[in-house]
Design brief:
heterotrimer, A mainly alpha (about 60), B mainly alpha (about 475), C mainly alpha (about 200), A: about 60 residues, mainly alpha, about 50% helix, elongated, C: about 200 residues, Cytochrome Bc1 Complex, Chain D, domain 2, two-stranded antiparallel ribbon, 7 helices
């Protein structure tokens, strides 16, 4: 049982442990409810749903 | 810790501007250095390709021999370009989605400098003859810890941003990014410990090597690319992602199946059959997350494909996302023993690798940069013509590269597997394809030069200045 | 959606098992293999000479794996054995002692598992490294002239002077001799022979 495998098992436990903790927290925090609203978080009042937000430079100058 | 981040003004446009301003220096730094490595890496890759057609090309110097130039190319584009731009885009996405202003960004910049020093040192090490010939991990053992230290800082910052985000829903891109930030150090540390610092012996190195290399593709690059596509496509269109349930399915099934894929690089190799079989099964199961993502993107885009005409971001991103589907299907098929028999050891695999890393990841990152950079420098891209040149040179280059490697590799495989055929026949049949492939490298290098000039102009302030804090003007084009 | 934590635990376990299956298991089972001992006390694979061990580093430094594989796949899966790459498939024990194992994933050049059987003469190897396309016409292997030095002939030619005949042939009164690196590399190449039967892979 040398140092290499001890380090790796430790890494495995720490990383998966923290991932598990993160997930449990997410579940408790209500991240998996209201999934119909969730996709709209990337929009807001100034960049709302229904408004595009990218242009080729010339196209805009023309308009 | 909370003094690192502070709550924002409620007006959303101003809030966005504040976030962008705080992220500007580190994100642009990673992007700029990434582009430099992309240029150098493309040149070296093209050189390596031409050496296969003209073996006497520059063959007198030891540091220019094919066996050193080729891994130097690989590591420059993986760590110098792809990882760096992935970090830059990932940090920006995390900042925007968490809606936090970043403070102490000097530390992130320092990490970026260290990262680049590590890449430079490692590349010089390979050319100097210090490579250990472990695929995707050729940097000598004294260079890899530099990368790990830089990454520790970067990854920690990503997690902290997540921890201190504004309350509310966590968007699917944030899951992918968080997962990528956590998976990468695990992969990198394991591979470094078992292959370089306390090296294991023999065929076990093959197993660990390909667990590492394939997972860098699927658990580091893929999540960053998908996270970007999941943000850019709906954001540019102004339409939310079609199905959030599908995005959840896609994420968790990726996490479930991807990490077992690695052994499909070694089918027929000296390993217990169950290891290879498990990888084949996992490779086929990958159809699930790939189809989930494809359906989601397609249904979001459906009816709006004309956006590809006016949006540089979408043009690159959608091509990248479609390529993700294509290359994943190809990979799932290649992993089965019967087709693998033909494709293993040939140029076909090289074509597949470039289709994934360039056709999917690099194109998606270009798309992200076309969206992000104007918002960071406060200007619009100075030339639509040059953007078009970048796109067509890159798309043509990669299509030509993949087509020649795929067809040539297939024919090469037929010769290699034919007991009646000489080894020379496999070289002769592949030769014309390899030459055209080398020429495609020139197209790609030219594309990168065009993009580098565009990027430099943006940094130097040659674009059109916007009055509003978050660039791209009032949308005078009606929602499609 | 209260089933999600359970789903997550399941997924996490599977991800962790990939680590166990593809990393920890090979490490434990395959990472410490010793050569097998035959009835008359021979070791299979035979231990490498010191020069061959140094040659492994030259092999790694110059990226030979990017064109050459070192694995013979089994007959039920491929035509490797029919093609003549070896009389039997290679198994884990064949790579015992190699750090890292040079399995390779490309056959731009021939598989080298049994190159010492096909090419047992060191003189051929020296010439091939110096001018591959003269030694094997049609080859696209780059020349490794930097592993050799050109020196004046003193009286009789050196015993290991390389018979270079192509465009880089030495001028009159000069000869090409291998450096220690070239010698080490060739010693390593001449150790590449995996034809003896092993308990896991008897001869067909």
């Amino acid at each position: 049982m040398d140092a290499g495998i001890v380090l790796l098992v430790l890494g495995l436990v720490l990383l998966s442990g923290s991932a598990l903790a993160a997930f449990c927290w997410a579940a408790r925090n209500g991240q998996f409810e209201n999934l119909d609203e969730a996709p709209e978080v990337i929009f807001d009042e100034s960049e709302p749903v229904g408004q595009t937000s990218d242009r080729f430079p010339e196209a805009r100058r023309r308009s | 810790m909370s003094d690192l981040l502070r709550p924002l003004e409620s007006d959303s446009a101003v809030e966005r501007a504040e976030i962008d301003r705080s992220l500007r220096a580190p994100v642009l730094f990673f992007m700029a250095t990434g582009i430099v490595w992309l240029l150098l890496g493309s040149v070296l890759g093209t050189l390596a390709a031409f050496k296969m057609s003209f073996p006497h090309l520059l063959d007198s110097e030891d540091w220019l021999t094919f066996g050193r130039v080729r891994p130097a190319h690989l590591n420059m584009v993986i760590y110098g370009w792809a990882s760096a731009v992935g970090i830059g885009v990932g940090i920006w996405l995390m900042g925007r989605l968490c809606r936090v202003v970043l403070r102490h960004r000097g530390l992130l910049l320092a990490a970026g400098v260290v990262w680049n020093l590590g890449v430079a040192a490692g590349t010089i090490g390979i050319l100097a003859g210090e490579s250990r010939s472990i695929e995707w991990l050729e940097f000598p053992g004294w260079a890899t810890p530099i990368l790990f230290v830089a990454y520790a800082l970067i990854g920690t910052w990503g997690v902290i941003m997540f921890r201190y985000r504004q309350p509310g829903h966590v968007y699917v891109s944030q899951w992918y990014l968080l997962a990528a930030f956590l998976w990468f150090p695990w992969l990198y540390a394991t591979a470094n410990i078992l292959l370089i610092w306390q090296p294991i012996q023999g065929s076990a190195t093959g197993a660990v090597n390909w667990w590492f290399a394939h997972n860098v593709l699927g658990l580091w690059f893929t999540p960053i690319g998908i996270a970007s596509a999941y943000y850019m496509i709906p954001k540019v269109l102004g339409r939310p992602i079609h199905s959030y349930y599908l995005s959840i399915l896609g994420f968790w099934s990726l996490a479930l199946f991807y990490s077992w894929n690695g052994m499909h690089h070694l089918i027929g190799g000296p390993f217990p059959a169950w290891m290879v079989s498990a990888s084949v099964v996992a490779s086929v199961m990958m159809f699930i997350p790939v189809i989930a993502v494809a359906i989601n993107h397609h249904l979001t885009m459906r009816g709006h494909f004309d956006a590809l005409k006016w949006s540089p971001t979408l043009r690159f991103t959608v091509l990248g996302a479609m390529t993700y589907t294509l290359v994943s299907f190809q990979g799932s098929l290649m992993a089965n023993p019967a087709p693998n028999n033909l494709t293993h050891f040939t140029d076909y695999t090289v074509g597949h690798a470039h289709l994934g890393l360039y056709g999917f990841f690099t194109m998606t990152m270009f798309g992200a940069m076309y969206y992000i950079v104007p918002r960071l420098v406060g200007r619009e891209w100075p030339s639509a013509t040059m953007i078009r040149w970048h796109f067509w040179l890159a798309a043509t280059g990669i299509a030509l590269m993949v087509a020649t490697l795929t067809l040539g590799g297939f024919l090469q495989g037929l010769e290699l597997n034919d007991p009646q055929s000489s080894f020379l026949a496999s070289l002769q049949v592949a030769a014309p394809f390899r030459l055209i492939r080398a020429a495609s490298g020139i197209l790609l290098s030219a594309a990168h030069l065009v993009f580098a000039v565009l990027f430099l102009w943006m940094l130097l302030g040659r674009g059109e200045r916007r009055a509003t804090p978050t660039l791209l003007a009032e949308s005078s084009v009606p929602a499609v | 959606m209260n089933k999600l934590p359970l789903l997550f635990v399941g997924i996490l376990c599977v991800f962790a098992t990939s680590w166990i299956g593809l990393v920890a298991y090979p490490y434990v089972k395959l990472g410490h293999l010793e050569p097998a001992v035959t009835k008359d006390g021979q070791l299979v694979p035979a231990p490498l000479t010191a020069s061959a061990v140094a040659g492994e580093r030259v092999y790694a430094a110059n990226g030979c794996i990017y064109c050459h594989s070192q694995q013979v796949r089994p007959a039920w899966l491929s035509t490797d054995i029919e093609k003549g790459w070896g009389p039997r498939q290679t198994v884990a024990r064949d790579y015992a002692g190699q750090r890292p194992g040079f399995l390779g994933t490309m056959r731009t050049g021939p598989d080298l598992t049994n190159v010492a059987v096909r090419r047992p003469d060191p003189a051929w190897h020296f010439q091939h490294l110096c001018e591959p396309d003269v030694a094997t016409p049609g080859s696209i292997m780059p020349a490794f002239r930097f592993l050799f030095k050109v020196q004046p002939v003193h009286g009789a030619p050196s015993a290991d002077a390389v018979a270079v005949s192509g465009p880089h042939a030495p001028p009159a009164g000069m000869e090409v001799v291998p450096t220690q690196e070239a010698r080490d590399l060739v010693a390593y190449l001449l150790s590449l022979k995996h034809t003896d039967p092993l308990p896991e892979a008897a001869q067909p």
